Amino acid sequence: MTQREAARDTRQLLETAGGDVFELVILARRLVAERFFGYAREVLQRAREVAPEDTPEELRRWMAEQQAYCTFKDPDLPLGPRLDRAHELLETATDLAATSAAPALLGLAGDVWMRKWEADAQTRHLERALAYYRRGCAEDKRGSGAEWGYNGVKAALVLDLIASLEATEAMDAGTTSDVAGIRRGEAERIRLEVVLQLPARVGAAGDVPDSEFWPLITIAEAQFGLGHYDEASALLARARAGREDRPW
Questions:
Q1: How does pLDDT run across 183-239, given as a tens digit for each residue?
Q2: What gap in Å lies between CA 23 and CA 46, rounded to an integer?
Q3: Per-position DSSP letters for 24-93, written without gaps between them
Q4: pLDDT digits (tens, 9 = 90+) for 94-113
Q5: For the residues of 72-88, what is the DSSP string, one character each?
Q6: CB-side exposure of 60: number of CA atoms within 13 Å?
Q7: Beta-carbon count within 10 A of 207 CB
Q8: How many Å is the Cα radius of gyration of the chain?
Q9: CB–CB of 68/108 below 8 Å?
Q10: What predicted TM-score, i.e. pTM, was given to this entire model?
Q11: Triad 39, 41, 44: Cα angle to 5°
Q12: CA proximity to 156, closest of 192, 120, 122, 123
């Protein structure tokens, strides 16, 4: 799908009053797959508006989650409002404070607050991101592990970042930070869990199935964080081989 085709298909549906929610959802999925996040965001907004009262709750949550994801990814929106809106949409998809929140949604919430920190360097935003990633990691362990350790490696990264900030502050004050050491220890433990638990989910070393690309990347990230660079490189090579001759 070209950008012109994406714009045409989006306008054709949106210019029609009302609309069929399933037709809109099908187009939104195509647009997301092609990374036309702005168009997908508009289509999903319409789909949520026209969804009949008997629309399954699971579909309503999916539409809100996908709209939040597309809003987060849309480079045409100003960064601050984009992140605020993405978080608002996640709150409509689920109660992020609830213990039953899905790992994927918690991971996306963590990504939103991580991006906020990248924009303004406020440590409290890193702490908020860490809270979501930690919970997503815990939910992963209790459930199917569908996020393949994503929340775990992200939590480890944020722990290292906060530890580095704390250690720097302590050094500037002429002392050391015990808390920084504790955070680094937690990051190492999480990465070791990822390395030890996820390989069992990955297939043979030949042509890696599409569904296993991200597990390989996740394990590689954990290995890299542990300083196991050769192991990380080998995993990345497997992931790359699994994507050869594939257009995506």
A1: 999 999 999 988 887 776 555 443 445 557 788 888 899 999 999 999 999 888 888
A2: 11
A3: HHHHHHHHHHTT-HHHHHHHHHHHHHH--TTS-HHHHHHHHHHHHHHHHH-TTS-HHHHHHHHHHHHHHH
A4: 777 776 678 888 999 999 99
A5: HH-TTS-HHHHHHHHHH
A6: 13
A7: 13
A8: 20
A9: yes
A10: 0.84
A11: 110
A12: 192
**Those residues with Cβ within 8 angstroms of residue 133's Cβ, 6 or more apart along the chain or in another chain:** 106, 107, 110, 151, 152, 154, 155, 158
Burial status of residue 170 (CB atoms within 10 A of its CB: 0-12, 13-18, 19 or more): middle
Residues 101 and 247: their CA atoms lie apart, in Å, by 34
